[in-house]
Amino acid sequence: MDAEFFSVEHTHTQLDLAPPVEQQPEQPEQPGPTLPTVTVVAEGLSKSFRFAGEVIQAVDEVSFAFTEGQFIAILGPSGCGKSTLLYLLGGLDKPTSGELLIDGVDVKKLSGGQEHRFRRQKLGFVFQSFHLIPGLTALENVMLPMELKGGMTNADLHERAHTLLRRVGLDENRHTHKPGKLSGGQQQRVAIARALANNPRVILADEPTGNVDSRNGKLIIQLLKQLAEQGRTVIVVTHDRSIAEVADVRMEMEDGQIKTMENYVRPINSRSLPQKQKKGRKR
Ligand SMILES: Nc1ncnc2c1ncn2[C@@H]1O[C@H](COP(=O)(O)OP(=O)(O)OP(=O)(O)O)[C@@H](O)[C@H]1O
Ligand SMILES: [Mg+2]
């Protein structure tokens, strides 16, 4: 994704180069370039925890907007709030304050049931510690989100789950193993296949290469990059420099805040969300 595509300068240049009205050729108006859809908007998103009488500001007023086709790496030292931010984006934790739009929907306004369905359809989450279901085989773990969503025959479920597992490089003879019989790297790949099961618009991954050797790490990075190129938004929390290198945007966090956003340009078609009044708080 070319970030410059969104820049204000670019838009001005286009306007400046437009021919004067009297020179307009007599042709039907051509549609302009379609802007990539904005998939994730966060505005003043914050999360604090109360712990032993202290308030820990894990995520502190972060704002950004990302589009389909973007690959974003979130970097920063341990404890700076990366996983907490990813959990907020995935709806797995509720923000203390701030606004969040996923694919144009204000997730806060969804009821419990609607929110579950929405998350299952739009988001794929790869956890730092996999969270595979131990009693199910690799194949069944990948089939589960599709079963919950419904609408597929059993044969189609099996076929798609096998295809996804092959795609993440899991040997065919491991598809019917339960997670306890798989290595950390193999479990990681099952977790990625499961996150892709419902073809989500947004993929959130917490240290997806943290438990794999460098060969499988490369495979995962290539896969995530490819998923972004196919039009998903891929947001990856990582310490892995090779992921950061291929990312379109590098967001560096420090103490819950965004320290830098390398190569970031706010999409011109992103809707600004109203921010609530800041409350005084202790860090
Ligand atoms: N449930 C919780 N209760 C209290 N404090 C929490 C909780 N979860 C996270 N924190 C605190 O919030 C801060 C951010 O934690 P977070 O897990 O987001 O960091 P991180 O950047 O992902 O770190 P790492 O790179 O080690 O995974 C830390 O100070 C952490 O101790
Ligand atoms: Mg973390």
Automatic annotation (TrEMBL):
<dbReference type="InterPro" id="IPR003439">
    <property type="entry name" value="ABC_transporter-like_ATP-bd"/>
</dbReference>
<dbReference type="InterPro" id="IPR003593">
    <property type="entry name" value="AAA+_ATPase"/>
</dbReference>
<dbReference type="InterPro" id="IPR017911">
    <property type="entry name" value="MacB-like_ATP-bd"/>
</dbReference>
<keyword id="KW-0547">Nucleotide-binding</keyword>
<keyword id="KW-0813">Transport</keyword>
<dbReference type="GO" id="GO:0016887">
    <property type="term" value="F:ATP hydrolysis activity"/>
</dbReference>
<feature type="region of interest" description="Disordered">
    <location>
        <begin position="1"/>
        <end position="35"/>
    </location>
</feature>
<dbReference type="GO" id="GO:0022857">
    <property type="term" value="F:transmembrane transporter activity"/>
</dbReference>
<dbReference type="Pfam" id="PF00005">
    <property type="entry name" value="ABC_tran"/>
</dbReference>
<dbReference type="GO" id="GO:0005886">
    <property type="term" value="C:plasma membrane"/>
</dbReference>
<dbReference type="GO" id="GO:0005524">
    <property type="term" value="F:ATP binding"/>
</dbReference>
<keyword id="KW-0067">ATP-binding</keyword>
<dbReference type="InterPro" id="IPR017871">
    <property type="entry name" value="ABC_transporter-like_CS"/>
</dbReference>
<dbReference type="GO" id="GO:0098796">
    <property type="term" value="C:membrane protein complex"/>
</dbReference>
<protein>
    <submittedName>
        <fullName>ABC transporter related protein</fullName>
    </submittedName>
</protein>
<dbReference type="InterPro" id="IPR027417">
    <property type="entry name" value="P-loop_NTPase"/>
</dbReference>
<feature type="domain" description="ABC transporter">
    <location>
        <begin position="40"/>
        <end position="280"/>
    </location>
</feature>
<dbReference type="InterPro" id="IPR015854">
    <property type="entry name" value="ABC_transpr_LolD-like"/>
</dbReference>
